[in-house]
Amino acid sequence: MSKKTILNNNSTDPNKILPMTYKWARAHYKNGVNNNWTPEEVNMQKDLETWKNPAGLSDDERRLIMWNMGFFSTAESLTANNIVLAIYRHITNPECRQYLLRQAYEEAVHTDAFIYCCDTLGFDPDEVYNMYMTIPSIKAKDDFVVDMTKSIFDINFKTDSTENIQKFVHDLVGYYIIMEGIFFYAGFVMMLSFLRQNRMVGVAEQFQYILRDESVHLAFGADLINEIVDENPEIWTAEFKSIITENIKKSVDLEVAYAKDCLPRGIMGLNADAIAEYVKYIADRRLERIHLPKVYGADNPFPWMSEMTDLRKEKNFFETRVTEYKKGGTLEWD
Ligand code: FE
Ligand code: MN
Fold first, then answer.
1. How far apart are CA 48 and CA 57, in angstroms?
2. Of 67, 116, 127, 334, which has the fewest Cβ atoms less than 10 A away?
């Protein structure tokens, strides 16, 4: 039997999922299903009262919420489009495709979360959905990802040479490691700080669900990258590794600039310097996850963030409706 490979495998039948070669892809699919949620299950009533009350939030707090809405709302559709239009056609392995379909669905749920927040809180959609053009530090992040992931968007692109497989992996790093693994994380820290203070709990909880999904997307992306590198070791040259590392370092600089812009003064025990340290800490983790040496040696200033990723609903002290998503189709209600 010829060995199955992810790229350029003429013997792969995309419709024949069993027997499976890549068990990790299946495991990520199951993890995604176990995180099932929909935005409307989160009650926004208290958020609405806080948002409408002039004394409910400071100007800096409002700005921080709006900016994160602005960045995430368009970044989610960018990610969904990348999966469907650029990545899917090159990945013919059926268990990986099953995961990509699940991920595309989850990105649609995330897009829905921001529609729901705008609808329930009365945010101006023109303001939120134009921030990727009007706020320079948001635009810089989006431009960086769009720029570094141009090759696989080209309709004529093929993974048919060492150079092209490098381009493909380069772009996967842009989508998975940088966009989903670094550019989302300053925002996650800021929004989940509200959750820790039991304020704007509805919006913050939507971000918490998104964080849990994104941590699976990132894990799938890293496993996909590592598998392609294992199967095509000739691509993993010293020069290529240094290009990837440099891209990750540039993305850290952009994320730190975004945090400084979002948070010009400290609030809620948060300041831009601590967030910068956190972004460097997670960038080191991302580098190690794809077998590259870490760069920063930063400490984690927010150890509570890892709990936020696994936190089961019933452990939350605030009141919400749905408590448990472990079994799809049998949601329990309080
Ligand atoms: Fe997402
Ligand atoms: Mn994602």
1. 11
2. 334
